[in-house]
Amino acid sequence: MGNLVCVLIFSVIASLGLVSFASCLVAEAKRPKKGDLKLDRKLCFLPASNAFEFGVASVICLSLAQIIGNVIVCASYYWSRGKATKAEKPFLTTILLAFSWMSFGVAVMLISAATSMSTKQPYGDGWLDGECYIVRGGVYISSGVLSLAAVLALLGAAGMMIRMNQTDQGQKVYAQQK
């Protein structure tokens, strides 16, 4: 892969990760607060908030970054598979990829649950079993940090795979020149 293409793809992945993180920060600021909750005897009402839109945007951007990054890692592995490489499956790349997927999974679950709580909770319906729930402070921020960790681990794994392929190609060219 050319250097310009690598820089472009890495920039897209990093930008999507930053947009996901920023959306989480804004969703934290826009989430419903305890003062927004209205009680009528046993019934509760919680109006919709803008945190819903920012939560959805965060999940979409994080998912796109994860998909693009994994395609790059898998494609890089596939391209190097037919060539004589030192290691068939780099250990550190696998660890980074696994960490990225775990962070991604937890972040998406946290963002999705918090986002679904940010929708309108009408009287008698609530969010779950007729009860209203409010997102705790820091849930969106922690999921934003997890999304950043997922994207950084993914960029590290992709960078290592591409660097390994470039190193192997450089050694082959040097060996052929002798």
Would you mind describing this structure in some detail?
This protein is mainly α and 178 residues long. It is 70% helix and 3% strand. The chain is built from four helices and two strands; from the N terminus they run H-E-E-H-H-H. It has a two-stranded antiparallel ribbon. Strand 1 (38-40) and strand 2 (43-45) form a beta hairpin. The two termini are 25 Å apart.
Can I get a quick summary?
With 178 residues, the protein is mainly alpha-helical. It has helices at residues 3-30, 51-81, 91-117, 139-177; strands at residues 38-40, 43-45.
Key words describing this protein structure:
178 residues, mainly alpha, two-stranded antiparallel sheet, 2 strands
Give the SSE map.
Elements (H helix, E strand, L loop, with lengths): L2 H28 L7 E3 L2 E3 L5 H31 L9 H27 L21 H39 L1
Antiparallel strand pairs: 1-2
The helix/strand class is mainly alpha
- Cross-sheet strand order for the largest sheet: 1-2
Poorly predicted residue ranges: none
Broad shape:
elongated
Please state roughly what percent of the residues sit in beta strands, choosing from under 5%, 5-15%, 15-25%, 25-35%, 35-45% or over 45%.
under 5%
Distance between the termini: 25 Å
Q: What does the average pLDDT come to?
A: 80
Overall strand count: 2
Radius of gyration: 22 Å
| SSE string | HEEHHH
Report the biggest beta sheet as strand number plus sense, adding barrel if it closes: 2 strands, antiparallel
Q: What is the number of helical segments per DSSP (H or I, 4+ residues)? A: 4
Proportion of helical residues: over 70%
